[in-house]
Amino acid sequence: MNLPRRARPTSTQRRRSNQPEADAEQKVGVHYLRVSSVRQTHTALDIDRDGNSIATQREECTAKAAAMGIAVTEEFIEPGKSAQTIDKRPEFRRLLAYLAENPEVGYVFVYSRSRAFRNIEDAVLPRKHLRGLGVKIVSTKEDFGDSLEAEFMETISDTMNDLQNRRNGEDIKVKMAHKARNGGTIGRAPIGYLNVRKDVDGRQVNTVDTDSERAPLIRTLFELYATGDYTLDDLADTAEDMGLRARPFGRWKAERPIAQNTIHRMLGDPYYAGYTVYDGELFDGRHEAIVPGDLFERVQDVLELRSNPAVHDNKLTHYLKGLLFCDRCEKAGRHSRLIYTEANGRNARYGYFKCKKKQTGECDLPHLPVHLVEQKVVDLYGRLALTANYLDEMTDALGAALASQEATERQLAGQLDRELAHLNEQEDRLIDLAQEGTLPRAKIQERLNDIKRQRDSLTTRQSAVHADLAAGAELLRLGIDLCRDPGTLYARAVDNARAQINKAFFTALHVDAYGDIQDAIWTEPFADLRAVHQAWLQCAPLASPAGKPTKAAHTGLSRLELALLAAQADDGPYKRNHRPSVDLAGGSNSLFMVELRGFEPLAFSLRTRRATNCATAPSA
Predict the structure, then answer these.
(1) What domain range is 461 assigned to?
(2) I need a labelling partner for 49 at 20 to 30 A (CA). Which of 86, 438, 544, 586 fits?
(3) Of 36, 53, 139, 588, catalytic
């Protein structure tokens, strides 16, 4: 901390403030009055405008100064600053500057030393600095005298204050965590709620109520943003038009408009959905939710979409922003995104997509009317449906794989029970040996620890296998369902839903000068489903008289299993389409999906049977 200096004092000024009474007549004093929270400044305002605590401190300090015959010329009031270091207390810094400029001040009166110093580090340096200025800190509660032993006692007092302050901090953290876990609100309630006191069984209890004036307006802001048609700038203007204003607080003595960054913070705050957050963990709150859970989630989707660096939350928004890239630049070895812009017409504004490199003269792609590109994307989805028979086979194979895995898990569970029983027997024998004293206790403890590690490993392995299988199967099942008729789903979706569908299927679409989609980068599992589908189309249909898939006599594999192998072959659709492509007949970029024979790798004999006998045939 940089402490201020004042001009070199005279011989009289250099004398310590603890000199005889004759010297006291040449010195004056100041008060330093401090409370830790704003709430303390609000108590008993009818008694004193600074609150009862400040008034009490002033009274005690004034009495102490009068008893010493010291005139008080100034006071410094630090209201509501809980900072543990003096660097974070503006009034204390102002006090130090004042002392440097006014050498006639010889005393600083405080209610107690803990009001000035909260830790030993902050006590030592200012005390040494004040001593050099000829200034003494006088506490109304701690009077140790003027001897060397008194300085030692001051150091002990400052150390104890530091310890107590740290203890109080740890105690507050524990209590705050307990309150949050039980749904309580920590600190000041956000906009839309009010901190109130209620009578509960004859006792006054601090709690939180909804603000009947502001809560409906805040819900309206969530509803507007969830449509995807409003930006934060728009919401700030709308909030002001509706009359939604922040409550007075701290240095803000009157209501004020809500800033854009405050609205952004509100939209992502789960408190409005009925939760409290402490140390990064979410708890069910006891307060009433202003925003329903489904509405809150829709708002989070919009926030996540616009958090993409390619999608800036400004007034020009479109659900295709961040997804489209210039195909002309891509083929020229550049990587350039299409940006959305609007032009003023005679009676309306018209939207266009243009290449970002056009601004620098590197690309001459013409402006593409937004309605043209939108329709091209709709047409694309209309061609994305995969063959129904293929999807049915995938669904059946997925179900069979899950059933097989469940049977395997049951076998594993039985084996696990037997191994655990064996470990328990070993543990019992070791305990008996420990009681008999046959083996050294350290050796027994080592073997017991080994048994515990084996038991934990077996339990963890089984739960992890089940979790991985369930997550992969659910992802694949959702992908299969979406591939049945994505065209109808997309055509009927509103703009915000279309943005989410695009995000699920693609990470990029490359657009040419006519608005046509030339290339695409697929997401998983759609890239994998399409790769296997392309191989499936090229394999001869193997059907029984009843129309059900059969095993090929020369391989013992079904058509789907052959397709899985063919897709992974060196010349298969996965390898051929290593660079992502929107081959509308069924291209892809990578093979994520595991083989469906129990979700385990094929045996070596099956791996070596490449799909060399797959004959090209029309799609089934």
Answers:
(1) 388-482
(2) 86
(3) 36
